[in-house]
Design a protein that fits this description.
This protein is α+β, with helices and mostly antiparallel strands. 58% of the residues lie in helices and 9% in strands. The chain has three domains: 22-150, no CATH class; 190-287; 290-418, Histidine kinase-like ATPase, C-terminal domain (Heat Shock Protein 90, 2-Layer Sandwich). Helix 6 (153-234) packs antiparallel against helix 7.
Length: 418
């Protein structure tokens, strides 16, 4: 007798095609089946009740005051059966309009009970109780208008009340069950939406991390290119072997920069789902990240570019440094050397790394004030911001600026658990 599909017409109501806003909702196949069964059930009861009323045996007849009321009752029952097809649109209105008919109509009892059940399922509890109270009042009057030939008045009235309250209990159970199903469905949809949001956030964070790595790597290599190109520009008469060496460094740096850029752009353009399917672990394979053991190679690369770099590595076993701390240290030194090339070309740079498990790891990149104006090398100005974020996420701190002696100092401290 009920349907589960439609949108509620006011807050707190269960979705169903019997609500007031259902006019714009198309009946589903289940709705048509349920409506057809309700109509046939109501029509069968109309025929049975009309036959009983016309029966000459008083045991099966609940007589009406006037004989002409029998066909009238049959017509009322047929009209109520027809109303079952539109009860989804106006359940409460039909229940209120047909409530007076329950005083004397036996043929319309089943169709009217179906309409009442519809109200209980698809309207608030207060509304359902109000309609129930009206039905109980008309039930008292029905036993006077159409007394049963064998059963006493109070027995008939009690059976009518039991039937009405049973329909109320059943309808409220159906309504509560549907609300539970709707709540579980909404919870599942919300969980799915939250999962998609987490995936999007993970993608965004991964792309941000890749962009930060691209800045750290490309800024370092492009600054090397700019430094060597500037040297060739101002020293066209340099010895051939120096020109060859500078050209080799420029070619190598350009090749590495293009390779890094190609990898980053490939990751950014790759579809995450396809990458997850290709990777057994569900993640895109990455190239090995630098560690503290790679720091000498980074310094040597800067020395080949003409920088005067002094390294004081006081870590007993660089290879034993945790990967996350080593990677952060590498990026901090890389950014410090890049900034020194940009803003203090020719100045001596001192790199100090010291620490131990339990005491933490301290990094310092210090360079003297440049003698002349620094060259104009373009930059985004976000390198130190990225380093500060990286250091903060690692639980450390970052400092940078001029010292009292005029040197520029980039210092950081990273926690290193024992």
């Amino acid at each position: 007798m009920t349907s589960a599909a439609a949108a509620p017409d006011h807050p707190g109501l269960l979705p169903g095609s019997l609500t007031g806003a259902v006019g714009a909702t198309r009946r589903t196949t289940r709705d048509w089946v349920v409506d057809s069964l309700c109509f046939l059930l109501g029509l069968g009861w109309v025929l049975l009740a009309t036959g009983d009323a016309l029966s000459p045996d008083p045991k099966f007849a609940a007589p009406l005051p006037q004989p002409w009321m029998v066909p009238v009752d049959a017509v009322i029952g047929l009209v109520c059966c027809a109303l079952l097809w539109v009860r989804r649109r106006w359940p409460l209105g039909l229940a209120v309009a047909t409530l007076p008919l329950t005083i004397f109509s036996m043929a319309g009892a089943v169709p009217l009970l179906i309409i009442y059940f519809t109200v209980v399922v698809h309207r608030r509890t207060a509304v359902a109780l109000a309609v129930t109270a009206g039905g109980l009042l008309t039930n008292f009057a029905f036993s006077y208008v159409r007394p049963d030939p064998e059963l006493p008045y109070w027995v008939v009235t009690a059976w009518g009340a039991v039937l009405c309250l049973s329909a109320l209990a059943w309808g409220m159970f159906v309504r509560a069950r549907r609300q539970l199903v709707v709540s579980l469905r909404e919870r599942a949809h919300r969980a799915e939406a939250e999962q998609q949001l987490r995936v999007e956030q993970a993608r965004h964070l991964e792309r941000t991390r890749i962009a930060r790595e691209m800045h750290d790597v490309l800024a370092h290599r492009i600054s090397l290119l700019s430094l060597h190109a500037g040297a060739l520009e101002f020293r066209p008469d340099a010895p051939p072997h120096e020109i060859v060496r500078a050209a080799g460094v420029m070619r190598s740096s350009a090749h590495q920069a293009l390779q890094d850029l190609r990898e980053v752009i490939g990751v950014l353009r790759a579809d995450t789902g396809a990458a997850a399917e290709r990777s057994p672990a569900g993640t895109t394979p990455e190239r090995p990240q630098p560690t503290l053991a790679d720091l000498p190679a980074l310094v040597e690369e800067s020395r080949q570019a003409g920088m005067r770099v002094t390294v004081r590595n006081r870590v007993a076993d660089p290879a034993a440094t945790p990967a996350a701390i080593g990677r952060s240290t590498y990026r901090i030194v890389q950014e410090g050397l890049t900034n020194a090339r940009k803003h203090a070309p020719g100045a001596a740079v001192t790199v100090t790394v010291e620490g131990a498990p339990g005491a933490g790891l301290a990094i310092e990149v210090r360079n003297r004030r440049p003698v002349g104006p620094p060259p104009e090398i373009p930059g985004a100005g976000t390198g130190l911001i990225g380093l500060a974020e990286r250091t903060t996420l690692a639980g450390g701190r970052l400092e940078h600026g001029r010292t009292e002696s005029g040197d520029y100092r980039l210092g950081a401290w990273l926690p290193w658990s024992a």
